[in-house]
Design brief:
The structure is a homodimer of 160-residue chains. By secondary structure, chain A is of the alpha+beta class. Chain A is 45% helix and 19% strand. Chain A has 6 helices and 5 strands. In chain A, the strands form 2 sheets. The first copy, chain A, has a 3-stranded mixed sheet. A two-stranded antiparallel ribbon of chain A has the order 1-2. In chain A, a hairpin with a 5-residue loop joins strand 3 and strand 4. In chain A, helix 1 runs antiparallel to helix 2 and helix 2 packs across helix 4. At the A-B interface, strand 3, helix 5, strand 5 and helix 6 of A face strand 3, helix 5 and strand 5 of B. Chain A binds a DNA duplex (30 and 30 nucleotides) through helix 4.
Amino acid sequence: MPRAIFPAPDHDHERCAHAAIAHAEAHCAARAQRLTPIRRHVLEALLASHSPLGAYEIIERLADKSGRPAPITVYRALEFLRDNGLVHRIESRNAFVACVHNHSGDDLVVFLICERCGTVGEGPAGAVAEALKASSRAAGFSPKSPLIEIVGVCSHCRQR
Amino acid sequence: MPRAIFPAPDHDHERCAHAAIAHAEAHCAARAQRLTPIRRHVLEALLASHSPLGAYEIIERLADKSGRPAPITVYRALEFLRDNGLVHRIESRNAFVACVHNHSGDDLVVFLICERCGTVGEGPAGAVAEALKASSRAAGFSPKSPLIEIVGVCSHCRQR
DNA sequence: GGTCTTCTTGCTGCAGTGCAACATAAAAGC
DNA sequence: GCTTTTATGTTGCACTGCAGCAAGAAGACC
C-alpha cells in the first residue's frame, strides 16, 4: 500500500474534484457511455468531500439544483457510476464515495475509514491482495471480489 | 488461513449447532451474561444453517415458536450476540451468521461467501491481517477493526 | 426529415433495515 | 420485601433499495 492514500484535510480539493470529473468525462467518452446531468450531479455531490454519503444525503444535496430527485433516480445514477468504477460503495456504512484513483476495475481496493473525520482513503493493496487470494484459494475458495474496509484513525486526526 | 474453513454440505450439522449453543452457554455463564430464551432462539435460527440471515428472515423463523417478535426485539438479541462474539454481521449483505469458531473477540476474521450456495466460511487471517495492519500503519492509519468479506465460489460448489 | 430502437428519467409503490423513546416485566442485589 | 438493573414489549418512524410501468431524449438508419 502506497504513501498518500489519505487526502490531507488541506489539500487542493478544487483541483482534486475537477480532475475526477475530467477523468469521468474521458472515461465515459471512451466507452460511449453518457455522463448525463444527473449522473454528473451525483458524482459532484460525492466529490464535494472525501467522506461517504448515504443515498438520501445525496438527494438532499441535489435538492437545490434541479428539484429533488426521487431515490430511484439517485440509485440509478449511482449504479451507473459504480459500474464505471467512478464511485465505490462503503458496505459497512451503506454509503458511497467518489473514486479519485482511476485504478482499473478489477484491482483490489482497501478502504481506510477514519472514525473521527469520516474521510475515506482508498488504496491498492497489492501484497495484501495476493496473500488473501492465495490463502483463500488454499481453502478451496475461488475469490472474486474481495472487500476490505478498515475503521481507524487517520494520520491527520491522530496528530491532534 | 487454515484448512477446513468451509463447512462441507454434508457435515454433522446437528453436532455443529449443538456445540455452538453449548459454547454460547458456557461463554455467557463465564461472563455473567444471560442467554435468555429470545437470544437463544435467534442464535438457534442462525445456527440452522451456515448461510447468513437477514433480520426479517430471523423474525420469520421465530414466528412459530413464541409469537412473531418485533424487529427491535431481534435486533437487540443480535446486538447482544454480536457483543459476545457469538454472531457476526455480514456487512455486504445486511445479514448475520452464527460464529462457530469461538475465536477471541479481537481476532481478524475473513468471511468467505459462496455466491452459489450462500454458505459463509469464516477463518482467521493471521498473515493477511498482519500485512494489512502493517501497511495501513505505513499509510499513517491506525487500524481498529478490519473487515474482510470475499465473494466467490466455495470448494463444494465448484466440484459441480 | 422521419422512424425505430435504445437509453435515460419520472412516478408510484413497497419490502427490508434499523433504531429511538417510552412502558412494562423480570431478575439480581441488598 | 424493596430497590436497582436488565430485558422485553409497543409504537412509531426514518433510511435503504428496488420493481414495474410510463414518458421522454438521444442515436441509428433509411
